[in-house]
Amino acid sequence: MTVKNKIIVWFISILVIVFSLAFFIIYSLSSSFLKENLKKNLSQTVEKNADEIEYYFILSGEDENIYNQYIEYDGGFLEIDDDFLNTVDGITIGLYEKNGNLIYGENPLGEHLLKKGFSNAILQTITVEGEKHYVFDRKLDGIGVDGLWLRGTVSEETALSGLKSVSKIALIILCIIVEISAVIGIIIAEKILKPVKKITQAAIQIGSSKNLKQRINLGEGKDEFKTLANHFDKMVDRLDEAFEAEKRFTSDASHELRTPVTVISAQCEYALESPKETEEYIEALEVISRQSKKMSSLINDMLSLSRFEHKKGNYEFCDFDFSTFISELCEDLALVESKNITLYTDVEKNIQINGEKELLERLASNLIMNAYKYGKENGVINVSLSKKGEKIFLSVSDDGIGISEVDLPRVFDRFYCVDKSRNNAGTGLGLSMALEIARLHGGDITVESTLGKGSTFTFII
Ligand code: ATP
Ligand code: MG
User: Fold this and answer.
1) What angle is formed at CA 22 by the lines to CA 17 and CA 28, rounded to 5 degrees?
2) How far out from the chain centre does Cα 278 lie?
3) Which residues have C-beta within 8 Å of that of residue 61, sequence separation ≥ 6?
């Protein structure tokens, strides 16, 4: 069963249960209240009528009242006051002799009623043709009336008929309300679940066509489906990015490896083609050695990059003294003997950092080694570490070859080298790795450079 149908079924069931329960409770309370009222009314009417009957042995002239009834009884007269109520509010009263003979009033149930024996001041019930009746008897006492009984009868239907017709109308109204609510429920459920349809369609399309460009695009908003859709879109964004990066990396890597492999195989073919002079063999071997070193460093860089990508979320950061760390690294790197370059440091003391030592060492040494690599003869490198406010700045400046405005935006791209033909050209992975490390620490790397004058790379965190 679909979620939509489940919601509708639950909604309607709960609606019907709640309404039925409310109806049942109101009906039961009202009917028991009405029944109690009816019983009270019955006994009160019988009791009142008992006071309206008197007995006279002889009727004198002044006792004659034209409005009252006089019934000959037991050698005297029974006077029934005109206040005597035969039938009122559905209650029927009859005056009976002990043997059941009706001498005044009415017996609405005939034989059925006579079968029920008299029982003083006790409410009895009798069911005739499925209809329940209440019976209340009152034994008359006093001179002349001993042995007479007043019996009141009322049908339960009298009390409940009004309630029953109101209930019928209420039931019809309830059915209409349930139907209308069900229709509204269906419309609301469809409207609420519409985004789910979109999410499902997008997921199916991504799954079937492997099109990671597909998005749900439910727009901004705080409702649960929009939040889910936005997170889904962001997840696909990241998958798409990772997938694209993977593709780019694989094609770049194979492209980068193809060049040294081609050069090596060309040199081998050339050397094997025909007998050569020793110098020519040496030259060919030198080319092969250079290219294989390049391949080896490329493979090493690629391996560390891939290790870094895999381990990204699992590095353990710790707090340590970044000032001491940079000073010691510079001391070591100052020993690099390259182009007679001098390394100067200007490190502010006691700067603390939270990070991963091995990665930060790789970042800093990449920047410093680039400064050596692209520095000029007898040049200088300045490494400075400072803190302004909450930000730490590690900058590495050189007075080397610099980078042109055209190349500047691309130096952080993977495998990008400004001049590949240069002998000491690297793999072009150093800066991209450094930038990834900076970002992993929540920082960034900026670069300023003038062609022919030098460059400054700054790690800001
Ligand atoms: P490796 O992967 O061995 O570091 P690489 O040094 O060529 O190789 P990156 O460190 O990523 O690669 O640098 C990318 C390019 O940016 C370099 O090829 C170089 O042309 C340029 N570059 C980097 N640093 C400097 C610098 N300090 N001065 C001038 N050019 C630089
Ligand atoms: Mg480099």
Assistant:
1) 120
2) 77
3) none
The whole-angstrom separation of Cα 186 and Cα 11 is: 9
Q: How far is the CA of 415 from the centre of ligand 2 (A)?
A: 10
pLDDT digits (tens, 9 = 90+) for 76-107: 888 787 777 777 778 898 888 888 888 888 88
Phi/psi at 210 (5° precision):
55, 30
Return the exposure string of 303-331: e unless at least 16 CB atoms fall within 10 Å of the residue's CB, then b: eebeebeeeeeeeeeeeeebbebbeebbe
For residues 113 and 93, what is the distance between their CA atoms, to the nearest angstrom?
Answer: 12
- The residue written with tokens 């690294």 in the block is 329
pTM: 0.55
Task: Kindly give the distance from the C-alpha atom of residue 425 to the centroid of ligand 2, in angstroms, as a whole number.
Answer: 9
Cα–Cα distance measured from residue 284 to residue 402, given in angstroms and rounded to the nearest whole number: 32
Joined together, the tokens standing for residue 228 give 């889910």
* pLDDT tens digit sequence for 235-271: 888 888 888 878 877 887 787 788 889 999 999 999 9
Ligand found nearest the CA of 382: 1
User: What is the phi/psi pair of residue 156, to 5°?
Assistant: -60, -30
pLDDT over threshold 80, residue 200: yes
* Ligand 1, residues at Cβ distance < 6 Å: 301, 366, 370-371, 373-374, 398, 400-403, 411, 416-418, 425-432, 455
